[in-house]
Amino acid sequence: MNNTTTLAQSAATTGYVLELYYLLIIVLSAFVGICFSLACLIRFLREPKLRTHFNYLFHYVIIFCIIGGLFSGPYFIAGYDLILFQKSIEFCHLHVVTGYFYFIAIPTTICFTSIERHVVMFRRNGVLTWKRQLIPFSLIILYCFLVVCSFALIPQCNYLPCVPCTNLNVHILLAWQTCSFILPLIITMLSTLAFLFRLYNYFNEQARIRNGIDKQQSKTLKIVAIQAIIYLLWCSVVYCPPNIYNFLVAYNSKRYTSSLMKTIGGVISNCGLQAYPIITFFLFKSTTKSIYAQSTSRNTNKSPQEQNTTST
C-alpha cells in the first residue's frame, strides 16, 4: 500500500478532536478577531494619517482576517458537526478555497508591504489616494485567487471529507507551501534585513555629517523597523508549525498522523491569524502620530508647489 493510500485511509478515520473546548477556541478567536478588525478599519477610515506608504496595506490585510473569521471557522464546524463535508463536495470545495485564499493572502500582502517599505523608506510618507491604495491590493487579490484555484481545484483525487487533493501529494503540497508562505516569508525576511541594514547605515551617516540625528525622523524609522520585526515573527510563528506538520503527514502519514497534532495545528492557525488585527490595533495606536508627523515636517520644508503634489 503506497503512502497516498495510507494517508487517505488515515485522513478519513482520524479527523479533528472536536471537543467543546476546541469549538469554543475557534468561535472565541473569530469573535475577538472580528471585533479588533472592525476597530482597526474604523480607525483607518477616520484617520488619513494611516493611509500612507508605511501603513495602508497592513490595514487591508484585516479584510482577509474578517473573511477567515466569518467563513473559515463556521464552515469547518458546520462541515464536521452537520456532516456536510460527507454530503456535499461543493461545500467542501468552498471551504477549501476560502481557507486557502485568506491563508495565502495575508503573508503575500505582508511580503509586498515589506518590499514597498524598503523602497520608500526615505521618501515623503504622504497620504495616498484611494486609487493608489487599491491598485496593488487588487493585484494581490487576483494573484492569490489564481494560485488558490490552481492548487485547490485542479488536482484530482478520490474525494475525502474534507481533505484537499493538494495534501495527498507531497510534491504538490510542497509547491503550494512554497507559493503560499515559504517564498513570501523569505522575501519578507530579506526585505526586513535590508531595511534594518539601510537604517543602520543611514543613522551612522547622519550622525557623521550633522553630528546629530533628527529625533522625529529617527523615532519614525525605529517604529517602522519594530513593526517590521514583529510582523515577521508573527508570520513565522503562525505559518511554520501547521505547514511543517502537513508536510510530514504527506511525506509519511503512517508515522506522523495524529489527531492531537492536527487539533493543535488548527488552534495555532485559527487563533494566530485572528491575532493579526489585535497586533495591528496596538502597533498603530500610539505610533501613527509620529509617522504622520514626519511627512508633515518634511512638507513644511518644501516649496508650495511641492507641497501641493499628491503622493502617488
TrEMBL record:
Transmembrane domains' residue ranges:
20-45, 57-77, 97-115, 135-154, 174-200, 221-244, 264-284
**Organism field:** Didymodactylos carnosus
| SUPFAM superfamilies assigned | Family A G protein-coupled receptor-like (SSF81321)
Q: Could you confirm whether the keyword Transmembrane appears in this record?
A: yes
Keyword Transmembrane on entry: yes
User: What keywords does the record list, in alphabetical order?
Assistant: Membrane, Transmembrane, Transmembrane helix
Record-given protein name: G-protein coupled receptors family 1 profile domain-containing protein
